[in-house]
Amino acid sequence: MKNDMQFTGKNGEFQIRHMVEKTQLNFPVANEEGIKSSVTQTFGGDCKLDQNHFLLEPVSIENLHNNRSTRNVWCTINRKEHVSLTGVSAQAEYAHFLGKEEEVTFDAGFMWQETKRELKEQKIEAAVRIFAPLGVPAELMQVRVTNKSDMDMCVRVTSAIPIYGRSADNLRDHRHVTSLLHRIRTTGRGVICKPVLSFDERGHQKNHMIYFEMGSQGDGTKPESFFPTVESFIGETGTFLAPDALKNKEKGCPAGCTVDGKEAMGAMAFPEITLAAGAHVDYILLGGMTEDLKLAEQAAEMFCTTEQADAAFEQAKNYWNGLVNISFETGNPKEDSYLKWICFQPVLRRIYGCSFLPYHDYGRGGRGWRDLWQDCLSLLILDPKEVRSMILNSFAGVRFDGTNATIIGDKPGEFVADRNNITRVWMDHAYWPFVTTKLYLNQTGDLDILDQKVAYFKDPQAKRGTARDAEWTPAYGMRQKDVNGNIYEGTVLEHLLLQNLCAFYEAGEHGMMRLRGADWNDALDMAAEKGESVAFTCAYIGNLRDLADTLEKYEAASGKKEITLAKEMEILIRQDRTSYDSAEKRNVVLNNYVSQCVHNISGEQISVDISTLVQNLRERADWYTGLIRTQEWVTDENGNGWFNGYYDNHGRPVEGKRDNHVRMMLTGQVFSVMGNVADDAQTAAIIKSADLYLYKKEVGGYRLNTDFKEEKFDLGRMFGFAYGEKENGAVFSHMTVMYANALYQRGFVKEGYRALYTLLEQAMNTPVSLMYPGIPEYFDADGKGKYPYLTGAASWYMMTMVTQIFGFRGEWGDLVLEPKILLRQFDESGNYSAQFPFRGQTYAVVYQNPQKKEYGDYRITEVWLDGQRYAGETNTGICIPFAVLEGKENHTLRIVLG
To answer: Left if phi > 0, otherwise alpha if psi is -120 to 50, otherwise beta: which for 118?
Structure first.
């Protein structure tokens, strides 16, 4: 069967046999030295360090099927026939047109891919592998040519990798002019291009970056000659599919030649050899970028033999495999392998940000505010030891008005305002830091972090983006100061309260929190004046309740009765219901607060009674819950109900029945359930309505919204998208997974399973999803996975699997076991197993269900810790104090259900 994908290892390795090229499929290859590559099945794609430094020509998704500028390798056989070992040639395209493709097997794992191509007419096999070695800013290709005939043959291999060597901006902005800056020379091992200047948004600057392509034969033999420019390789009449240099048997230039002002080419001709029948010959190609010429030259020597390259490959493979220290044994090996990839996706997000893969052709690199906090969720499950410092650094991006910097800088704790100097406030941004901090507190028990002091971010933006600080200059710096010129620092707890309370007070005319520039759904971006987000009002209500719980735990653990907060916050804290029961009153409070912190703040602090504050937060949450339950519940003519999630820029409710069309959005349902705004009856009604109006199994499950049948530009650009695409009615993985998580939290396990696993089954249905393992940003109207790898859904999926389904989670540092596993999920023996890290230890966990009971019917009857019976019959869950677990690196847990 063509394109038959099978998993071949325990670390997500997979193989596609009888592969027929899918032109838009691409694979991530990267390392910790900054290399970020995308690689197609025929080794197209690109390679870059950042927006301003691309080794290979930048590509978007639509470039992949028509771009001839690839990592190509040619083999000249018996001095007359030229074939591409990567399948990129005029002959290969014609054969594909005739349906006579070469026999290709594709293998891949974390950060590497390999093809084996049988060229039956030529009686050779070509194996080509690519990965990024550790320790050098480069990608490495290993090429093996095997003589499959019974006769000797004469072979000459020529690499052909165009060197773009500049900023992505120059793809259309001065493409030719910037080639005139190139200074190219050949060395003993390859081709080096160092432009003298760089032209990009930073202006005209002296360039220090060196772009290189180096190569050697597997025994260390150097290339014989070079074609260092595109012009010298393809000629005036050729193309990358049929280069003149090969057709005309040109010899190229030797090491030591220089060329100025041309498009660079990493084309290296290796010595002609006689390849005996059954024998093979290896080649190593190394392409990268560095400002250190010696490093480039040393790297070429570090990887110039097969043995060196093989060792580097094993080292890189072991490194990436080691980052995913969670494994599942559910009785379904395919599912287990997909879950491995989902657990790896947050690693890809950390490296690539939200840019630099072909679908992700927007932005200029890095991650946004929301991404930073959500990616921490996965790290808290995988490897929490670095998360404390990440959390503290990230709180330094909060402004004193409760908004935040929108772009994360390159260094920890470094933030900048919007790069285009556009003032924009996403109303959901203050929600995510506490979600992450709450998980951190539970997973680690580190309540001391709440007392840690952190500075605030400062730039010209003031009054929550509605004004500018005329006194601010760059000389002031990016940290909030007090009236004495000292950098002000507040506790993490102060930051959390400030963020959530400022959001609470920013109300629209219907009493819901204002939508501002957008919420989680970036495409709801056209209702800044009158738009309101009921959805994230529900989310913040959940935060208020959880903050109250956290404060209670903090009080009990620390023995403190009071906390200190900035004096300016008194107006936010000490208000009763009469001060916030209308939108007008709340906006007055907010305006009074933000007016105090336009430039400097007092630096003074006040003491606040914890128990009083706890009561105050709960009263706010309860009041808001009652308002939403009565005001925002909508129904259709059959009594099916759900919550209205938004108001548009005309102040009208968005959801309900209008013009005989049902308008329903998933986001408002997710956060009303997750924030405990929906009671159990309303949650059940929401599930019924979502199943009726949003669920479509053949495209992956729950769509983000129904078809509004309107270009609703008083709410957001999403309504300009075709229905079923991206934010307009696609199955958006992130929101679907959060819906599942919310349902699991509330005890609606079968319904949560349906949401989560319909999504996974769609991804695994590769003839339709047309994607490699993992989950995408969304599934389109045809069920095809779009924008793979870089999605916050992966962190939520992993967190849901571990903390909800397996029920393996921290609770203020202790270990809770509370499984929510359906009978269908246990294997034939009634087992459900996994391996998880927790607080620096590793746990092998197995749930045993010998009586084959369904969730809701079973309870924990026995807990065995490290082979010793720890507990007898409990209930649906058990909490094991961490004091019992300390002192060992590895534990086994066997939990018997009955």
So the answer is: beta
* Residue type, position 871, single letter: A
Query: Which token pair is 791?
Result: 């999605």
Per-residue DSSP letters for 708-725?
A: --S--TTT-GGGGSPTTB
SS3 (DSSP) at 593: helix
**Helices of type H across 10-169:** 90-97
Spatial neighbors of 886 by CB under 8 A, at least 6 apart, are none
Q: Residue 522: count other Cβ atoms within 10 Å of its Cβ.
A: 16
Q: Give the model's pLDDT for residue 642.
A: 98
Residue 791's SS3 state is: coil
> Where is 572: in which H helix or E strand?
helix 570-573
Tokens encoding 26: 């691409």
Angstrom distance (rounded) from CA 372 to CA 529:
28
pLDDT digits (tens, 9 = 90+) for 203-243: 788 999 999 999 999 999 999 999 999 999 999 999 999 99
Q: Give the CA count within 13 Å in the CB-facing half-sphere of 454.
A: 28
pLDDT band at 366 (very low <50, low <70, confident <90, very high): low
Q: Is 14 in contact with 95 (CB distance < 8 Å)?
A: no
- Mean pLDDT for 11-36 is 94
CA distances from 408 to 252, 376, 417 (A): 46, 14, 9
Beta bridge partners of 359: none
Q: Strands, DSSP E only, in 241-302?
A: 258-260, 264-269, 273-275, 280-290
Contact indicator for 199, 174 with CB cutoff of 8 Å: yes
Q: How many CB atoms lie within 10 A of CB 144?
A: 18
Phi-psi region of 652 (alpha: psi -120 to 50; beta: other; left: phi over 0): beta
Tell whether the model's pLDDT for residue 421 goes beyond 70: no
DSSP 618-662: HHHHHHHHHHHHHHSEEE-TT--EEE--EE-TTS-B--EEETTEE
Residue 101 has pLDDT above 90, yes or no: no
Identify the sign of the CA torsion 318, 320, 322, 324.
negative
Greatest pairwise CA separation for the chain in angstroms: 94
Q: Which residues of 87-103 are buried (b: 16+ CB within 10 A; e: fewer)?
A: bbbebbeeeeeeeebbe
Q: What distance in Å separates the CA atoms of residue 620 and residue 204, rounded to the nearest whole number?
A: 55
592's tokens:
């009074």
Distance, CA of 157 to CA of 145 (rounded, Å): 9
Statement: residue 412 has pLDDT above 90:
no
For residues 154 and 277, the answer to whether their CB atoms sit within 8 Å is no
The helices-and-strands tally (H runs, E runs) of the chain is 22, 51
Picking from 271, 289, 263, 165, the residue whose alpha carbon sits closest to that of residue 225 is 271
What's the rounded Cα separation, in Å, for the pair 698 and 707?
Answer: 17
Q: Which two tokens stand for residue 285?
A: 């190609």
Look at the chain and count its residues. 898
Structure confidence by residue, pLDDT tens digits, 537-550:
999 999 999 999 99
Q: What is the pLDDT of residue 885?
A: 97
Residue 268: pLDDT above 60? yes
The answer to whether the pTM exceeds 0.90 is yes
| CA dihedral over 250, 256, 262, 266, signed as positive or negative | positive
Q: Tokens 């840019």 map to which residue?
A: 355
pLDDT of residue 172: 84
What residues have CB less than 8 Å from 710, skipping those under 6 apart?
719
pLDDT band at 417 (very low <50, low <70, confident <90, very high): low
Q: How far is C-alpha 472 from the chain's CA centre?
A: 35
Pairing of strands 103-109, 112-119: antiparallel
Quickly tell me which residue has 């998208």 as its tokens: 721
Residue ranges of alpha helices (H) inside 726-878 are 733-745, 749-764, 766-769, 793-799
Cα separations in angstroms, 496 against 221, 277, 398, 491: 61, 70, 9, 9
Q: Are strands 532-533 and 646-647 parallel, antiparallel or unpaired?
A: antiparallel
